Amino acid sequence: MSEKLPANAVLVESALRELGASGEIVVLPEKAPTAATAAAQVGCEVGAIANSLIFDADGAPLLVLTSGAHRVDVQLVARTAGAQRVRRATPEFVRAATGQPIGGVAPVGHPAPVRTLVDNWLSKHEVVWAAGGHPLTVFPTTFDELVRITGGTPVDVE
Asked: Which part of the chain is the YbaK/aminoacyl-tRNA synthetase-associated domain (predicted)?
């Protein structure tokens, strides 16, 4: 890689190698605040972007890796996770749980494992793009690899 990776992305890259993941972290030319802008930058359909959303599920972090084409049904996720209350986490909660900022949360590389749900819709894409620990970084992967490296549970999220 010719560009120097941000510190969080280096941690994610190390975690990916330890987990036997195949993709390399790519530095985007500009931040991608939406799945649509990320898709435009990497040249894929918006549905192939794996948005990493951290929720507060009864006080515990819950990572939902959802297709950029979907909105998460919080009630469905709560039932699936067996939680009484699931809500979008605050930036501080996200940072404490993952060590990463909103907009760059990777599926791996967190200080401690985070329970993860993986949107079944992502399986429709041969290549899926996930955040690399920083708002300017992503990496290519597959649905099966995301499930494997996160220990995630495949679910419907909408």
From this structure: 30-148
